[in-house]
Each structure stands twice: as structure tokens, then as C-alpha cells.
Design brief:
Helix content is 38%, strand content 27%. The chain is an alpha+beta fold and 85 residues long.
Length: 85
């Protein structure tokens, strides 16, 4: 399992547009990605679950990736977070 933490810099947090892009990115990989914040977690491929986390600017999220292509998936998802959130 690979994981990383990221502090959200987007002034609106994880809202509909970046959440949709995140789901699209996560679905590229066979590994399961899970986002956790404040004791709640959601699969990165489930839009409504991500939205229900209510992630705001300044929140630190943990992303855990587990599966056959976890190295690639974790690296690409971390890059995605840095570029979009």
C-alpha cells in the first residue's frame, strides 16, 4: 500500500468540478484509492462519497492506494492533487 498526505489549497476545497476530475483520474487505475479526512473516508472513484466528505481549504487529506499498479497510481494521484487541489 502506498499513501500520501496533502493539504488542500483550492479556496473552495474539493467541490464538484475537481471531484469529478479526481474520479476520472482514479478510474484510470486498477488499484483502489481511498481519501480520508477527519475520520471519514471515501473511495476516490465515487463522486458523491467524495463530495460528502466536505473537504475545505486547509484540510489535510490522506490518500491510500492499494493494488497491482499502486506505485504508478499513487504518484499520478499525488501529482493530480498538487496541480488541481
Amino acid at each position: 500500500m502506498k499513501s500520501f498526505n496533502y493539504v488542500i489549497t483550492d479556496e473552495i476545497g474539493i467541490h464538484a468540478r475537481p471531484a469529478g476530475l479526481l474520479v476520472k483520474e482514479a478510474k484510470k487505475y486498477s488499484s483502489k484509492a481511498t481519501i480520508s479526512v477527519d475520520g471519514k473516508s471515501a473511495e476516490a472513484t465515487k463522486l458523491m462519497a467524495i463530495m460528502s466528505l466536505g473537504v475545505k481549504q486547509g484540510d489535510e487529506v490522506s490518500v491510500a492506494v492499494e493494488g497491482d499498479d499502486e506505485d504508478t497510481a499513487a504518484a499520478e494521484l499525488e501529482k493530480f492533487f498538487k496541480e488541481n487541489l
